[in-house]
Structures are given as structure tokens and as C-alpha cells.
Amino acid sequence: MATGGISVPLLADLLAVFIIAAGVGIFVAKVGRFPYTIALLIAGFVASVVGVSVQIELSHDLILLVLLPPLLFEGAATTDLERLRRNVVPILLLAVVGLLVSVGLLGVVGARVFPGFDLLLALLFAAMILPTDPVSVLALFEELGAPDRLATLVEGESLVNDGVGVVVFSALLGYVGSSADGGAGASELFSPSGLGTLFTDIALVSGGGLLVGLAGGVLAYSVMASLDDQMTEIILTIILAYGAFLLAEHYAADVLGFHLSGVIATVVAGLFVGNRGAESAMSPQTKIAIFNTWETAAFIVNTFIFLMIGVTTPVGSLLDNAHLILVAIPLVLAARAAVVYPLSAVANRFTNPTVPLDYQHVMVWGGLHASIPIALVLGLPPSTPLRSELRAMVFGVAAFSLVVQGLTMSNLLDGLGIVTKSDAEELYELLTGRARAVDAALSAVEELHENGDIPQDVYDDFTTEYRAEKDQLNQAIATLMGENPELRDEQILAGERRILQREKSVLMDAVRNGVVSSDVGEELIEEVDIKLDRVQEGERTVSERGEGYEEFWRQRAEEFGLGVGESESSEGGE
User: Fold this and answer.
1) Whole-angstrom Cα distance, residue 96 to residue 312?
2) What are the GO MF terms of this UniProt record (predicted)?
3) pTM for this prediction
4) DSSP symbols for 254-303
């Protein structure tokens, strides 16, 4: 029977991968509080040791071109841009300055302690291994109820330093190749002009990737804003995720002569569509469909990549190079600690709230290394000096970070006492989650009824049932908030922040469309920014009796002779 060019053995291997993954999933579900991705990695190790053969090559191109874009896009799209903005100083310090400094530190020390390594090769190893991967630790954070801000710091740093790390690696690899071919290599890199070129390249490649991602995000947003078709919008986000990566990483070179950062392009596109697009260009049903699709895609990709990392780990090579790996592991941790603590102290001088010392401990130990380092080391050309040693070191350090650091993360969080999700917060999430589902159901029933897809008596039964449940949920939420005033205040501030962000978005659209002139628009937007700053500091701008903030339009209207009266807060002496 003809197969039409489809490899049956390949399909069988894929099926074997997911059969193993299903077994791991059942085990994790029964055991509980065991990170699924780490369990997959261990299962892969076991399969490799006992001789289970999977004839799928985990190549550099497979990871970077096929598997990485959905992981980056989903991670960015589900990241709260406002939280990221509030923590931008420590995130950028750690992801950019911290990565560059730690690469330099590890390179200098590694050149002295790794047998046969010169400075350039040690720097290349540092650039490969130091970008962090938050997948496993963030999954554990969610299970344990760790603070959202800690998760934002870890994920935000990873999203940025992945892109910076790939740029630094690519630049260093060129110098390593030059040195191997008899060129200047290290002497050229460490000259003033060489360092200037390196940092210029990093800025151009990163900045260009940012612009590509932003342009792609704006284009996708403008199309989605005029659509209300779930399937088409899902396809648009898939095109955006892969298109931004390919355009920056490959096709830009045809125009510019050098590639841009596909990682940063995909991250920026995901941030834009996942925040601005979800806020203004997606219906509730479309939003649910898109995020569910990307959550499923990320889960499947993570399942495949972590299991394949375990299966393809060169166990024999790890044993042969154990002396290098055992030296590399503490050095990588030391390089991480050497930047997290000082740079957090610097960030704490300029930001409020500060990054607590307990958070810094978790950020050091939670700096896991997985898909990006392994993709980079698999992409080393055959002519790279000490290529087999570099591969063993990267796989060895990644295995240690994922298994040892990942499995001990819960103990660290418990020991530091920063697992903060209370029973009341968990119940609030349950109630509000169900309330959103009921709202979506009511909207769907209304749409079906308007289109004539369900008869009147069925419509009446559905709406009666769901509206009764919604009333009960609202009553339960109100009671819970009344009994937990801290939870109530937190949710009010969060809601007010989202409302103010929507106000700002509408004003910006009005200025762009010419409905409001730029000078008036700037004044209105500035006032919203003032309110947002007050909310960020924990101060409400709406009081229980009405307005908690006196907008400038009232005074202007009074000066013009319009009797608008005073706000309730003014009358109450606010």
C-alpha cells in the first residue's frame, strides 16, 4: 500500500513519544505535586538508558523553527503587560545587563578551569547555557500558588534573555569560526572596535526584532479588530507567531544583510496580541478559543521537547565528560547568583515595591536551562573546537537544573515561606472562573436564539438555569469579599487598573482617528496615567460614595459657564 511519501516509522515514533507522555501524565495525576515536564525528562532518561529507540532527531532547526515559536508566543501572550511594565527595571537589568555580565564572568573563570578551553570558547559555552527557561518552574509556581509578582519576574526575565542570549551566541560563534579558520578570533573580539561591533550588533538585532514583532502584532490586531470569527483569528495568531520569527530570523537578511532576533520578534508580537488584542480586538468567545488553542499547543510542544531531551541526552558522553560537568554546574549557579543579588539591589533603589531577598533566592535557584541552550548546542557546526565536550556540558547542566533544581523548588518555596495563595483566594478564583463560564454560556445561548438555532422553550430553560446560577455565584462572591476585606481591596484595585487601561486605549484610538486633537488627547491620557500611578501605589481613585479623583474637565466646564455640579466625592469632603 502506498504511503504517499509519509514515513510510517516516523508516525510510529511520534505515537510512541505520546504513549510514554500519557503514562507520565497518569503517574503525575496519581502522585500529585510533581512537575509534569520534569517527570517527562526523567522518563526520557530512563527510556534512553534501557535502550528504547526513538528515531526522531532533536535538531537545532526543529527546536528553533518548529517548537520554540509556540512556546514563546504562548508565554508572551499570557503575560500581563501591566505587571511586566511595573517590573521592567529589574527584568531588563537581569535579562540584558545581568546576562552579559554573567556570560563574561563565566567565560573568564571557565577559560581557567575547563581543560582545553580558551577564553572565546568558554564565552561561547556561557552564552549557550545561561539563558533561562521558566517552563517547569512556572508550572510549579502555579501549582503551589506562589505570588504573581515572583512568576512575572522569572517569566519576564526569561522571555527577554532568551532573545539576548541567542544574539550573543550568534555573534560569538562567528568569532569562534574565525579563530578556527586561522583568523584573529579572540584578539579581534576583545579589541575596542570588536567590542563596539558586538554591542552594536546586539542592539541592532534585538531592536530590529522588536520592531518586526511590533509591526506584525499591529497588523494582526488591525485585521482581528474587524473580524469576529474564532477559527480565522486562531489561524492569524499562528501566522503571526511563526511569521514574525521567520521574517526576523531569516528573511530580514535578504533585505538588510543580517538577521534580526526571531525570538524577540515572536515575544513582542505575543505580548501585543495577548494584551492589546485580547482587550480590544477579541470577543469573549474568541479570546477563550485562542488562549485555549495556544495553551494546548504549548502543552503538546512541551510534552514532546522535554521527553525528547531526555531520550536524546548522550548518557555515555555525559559520563565521559563528568569532570567538566561537575565543574560547570556550580560555576553556572555562581555566575547566576553573582548578577541576581547585586542587580536586584540596584533595581531596588529605583523601583517600588522592591524585589525581596527571598524572591532573589528563588530567582537564582529557579534559573533553569532547557530548550534554548540545547537548541544552540545542537546547532554548533562540526568544525567547532571541543564540540562533543560542549554538547555534553550543556546537556549535563540542563539535566541538573531541570531535575535537581526543579524538584527541590517546592521545598525552597516552603522553606522561605512565600507560597502565599490562601484558601480564600483559591475559592475566589473558582467562583470567578465559573462566573465567566456562565457569562459565556449566556452569550452563546443569546446568539443561538437570535439566529433561530434553538426554540424559545429551550432558550427559556437555558437562560433560567444559567441566570439562577449567576445570581448564586454573585452572592457567594459578595459574601466572600465581605468576609475577606484584603481580598476585596486587591480585586477592586485590579479591576480599577483594567478599567483605566481601557480608558487609555480608547483615548489613544480617538487621537489616532482624529476624533480628539493630539494636545487635548495628551492631557486626557496624562490624567489617566496619574490615576494608574495612584492605583499602582495601592490608592483607589473611586471612593465608595463616588469619585475619588477630581478630573480636570469639571473645572474647565465650570470656567466655560456649564453648571455640571460637583462630584460626590467633593461634596463629601474627599
Assistant:
1) 31
2) potassium:proton antiporter activity; sodium:proton antiporter activity
3) 0.76
4) HHHSS---HHHHHHHHHHHIIIIIHHHT--HHHHHHHHHHHHHHHHHHHH
